[in-house]
Amino acid sequence: MTIRPTGLAAAFALLCLQLGAAAAERVVAVGGSVTETVFALGAGDRLVARDTTSTWPPDAEALPDVGYVRRLSPEGVLSVAPDLILAEEGAGPPETVDLLAAAEIPFVTIPDATDAEGVARKVEAVGAALGLDDRAAALAAAIRADMRAIRERSEDIGEPARVLFLLSAEGGRLMASGSGTAAESMIRLAGGENAVTGFEGYKPLTDEAVLAAAPDVVLMMEGRAGHGGAGVLSHPALAATPAGRDGRLVEMDGLYLLGFGPRTAEAVADLHAALYPNES
Amino acid sequence: MVAIAEGAPPAAGDRSLLARRATWGLVALALLTSWASLATGAAGVSLTDALARTLSGEGLTLQERIVIFEIRLPRLITGLLVGAALAVSGAVMQGLFRNPLADPGLVGVGAGAGLGAVSAIVLGGVLPPAIAAATGIYTVPVAAFLGGWAATMVLYRVSTRAGQTSVATMLLAGIALGALAGAATGLLVYVANDQQLRDLTFWGLGSLAGAAWPKLAVAAPIMLAAMAGTLWLARGLNGLALGEAAAAHMGVPVQRMKNLAILSVAAATGAAVAVSGGIGFVGIVVPHLLRLATGPDHRRLLPNAALLGASLLVGADMLSRTVIAPAELPIGIITALLGAPVFLWILLRRRGVLDL
């Protein structure tokens, strides 16, 4: 043991780079969509830990949890002895990322995306980091094809459905998605139209704004509507909208709907089918 | 009379000897928790093993060195300093305001620092990239410190008239300023996006996870200097227990003392909050616990509070790092979860003696 450990680790890191990181066998996945993609590429057995937002597939939940995506614990990550960290954009805090870099553990950031092309690119980036370029290319091509098919179907629809996405309806207070959100991207991809565009992000909505938005469909994450969903549509303002009159509430799993992982094309197709049930 | 005075054992209620012994006990406790904190962690690096190998010249692996010297050691020192700073500041505030409910938050540091941190988190994204790159990981701590400092200065100016600071005015103005800072914080929370909201929540719960040498190099001298400053206050705070007029007649320079107390509390707490976020209850529980156990003499109370506060925070941090490893529980949850029941228990047991 006369070789300085830093030298050894540096040599190892170099080796990893030369092999296209194919040697990474102890991977920490950070971010729900990244973890999902690793499993979708059939590399779930190479994961040794995940973050709190990685809840799909069920196998992922059996892995040790190194904390919330933006609050990773440096010693926690080091404790699982990773040889590669695959992190979604925005993972942190920067202090932890700096320490992991100092420990010479390869840290790959997967670019964030909320559009069709970006989802495919995410898959390719994860594939490249794991040395599974071929499988990733096939999966990305399938995603691109599926998304194109839905886009073509959506083009045939004359009047797009007005969709109101509610983050929560706790205590009768409606937290709605304005523009620039993941929810809005999904609504557009599925061929719908966001009913609320007056503000950015998620904000509480007044009753009058609900009436003005006049949504045809209310979209929520599963488990947020309460009382089997009937609770939301009986909200006095919502009940007076087309969605309330026709009882149209769509509920989808949060990570499935807004995660922008490899299941995005499927989720978009499901949402499209829920928005346009009469389409042949 | 003379014979009685000379030969008399310490009067009942004189607990100075006990307080002095407690100091040694607390030094031992601080050393013990420090060792335990260095030796435990998710990565399972053994300290004795690492020490043995360093001494035998075998050396440590890169990861072991990172875990011990870049993660656990700066964290330990941050924990010791922050715990001591919060506990000493609490003791000083309770002495100065002659109010058992006083804590460092009273001089506006908490509200100001909170507003500073929230502003940095929410508005940090719109900073010109050049400035953002230059400030980097310091943006939030620096903003928190400046916010805390600014709030204290405003409060001090409001409550000082003709060179006299009224603690009653300060208390009331502090509540008003707190409400104002709360409103401004609420406005920023409203415009914040999802990620920023998560960051805000975590900041409010406190954590020592951001501890790093460069941050410590800035914050440690401030905390140490401020705590050293409070050592001059001990005698004066004892006099102040009899009331401001009585203290002045005893020759205590009341106004100078107030200035020093407010400045050092603002600096110590500001720096502590800047590096660790919102950590509650240390400033209240530690001084009260010691007053009940070893008496109200500030000459012993202040150093003892520093030692107990340091041990408590390091212990709490150890729990925060290990209970849900490899993830971390925010330390503010642990200090409140441990502190509040202990405090209630003391209140129940000593209801008659304490007489709030």
Keywords:
A: 280 residues; alpha/beta; Rossmann fold; 2 domains; 6-stranded mixed β-sheet; 10 strands; globular; disordered N terminus; B: 356 residues; mainly alpha; ABC transporter involved in vitamin B12 uptake, BtuC; 17 helices
Largest sheet of chain A: 6 strands, mixed
Which structural class fits the helix and strand makeup of chain B?
A: mainly alpha
Radius of gyration of chain A, in Å, reads 22 Å
Whole-number tally of structural domains of chain B: 1
Question: What best-fitting shape of chain B do the alpha-carbon axes yield?
Answer: globular
Number of helices of chain B: 17
- Listing every helix as H and every strand as E from the N terminus to the C terminus, the arrangement of chain B reads HHHHHHHEEHHHHHHHHHH
Describe the structure.
The complex is a heterodimer of chains A (280) and B (356). Chain A has 280 residues and is an alpha/beta fold. Chain A folds into two domains: 2-148, Nitrogenase molybdenum iron protein domain (Rossmann fold), CATH 3.40.50; 162-275, 3-Layer(aba) Sandwich (Rossmann fold). Chain A has 14 helices and ten strands. Chain A has helices at residues 5-18, 32-40, 58-61, 74-79, 94-102, 116-130, 133-155, 182-189, 207-213, 230-233, 236-239, 242-246, 254-258, 264-275, and strands at 27-30, 47-50, 84-88, 107-110, 162-168, 174-177, 193-194, 202-205, 217-221, 249-252. In chain A, strands 5, 6, 7, 8, 9 and 10 form a six-stranded mixed sheet that branches. In chain A, strands 2-1-3-4 form a four-stranded parallel sheet, with helices on both faces. The radius of gyration of chain A is 22 Å and the shape is globular. Chain B is mainly α and 356 residues long. Chain B has one domain (59-349): Orthogonal Bundle (ABC transporter involved in vitamin B12 uptake, BtuC). Chain B has 17 helices and two strands. In chain B, strand 1 (160-161) and strand 2 (164-165) form a beta hairpin. In chain B, helix 4 (62-97) crosses helix 14, helix 4 (62-97) runs antiparallel to helix 15 (298-322) and helix 14 (282-294) crosses helix 15 (298-322). The interface between A and B is large, with 37 and 35 residues.
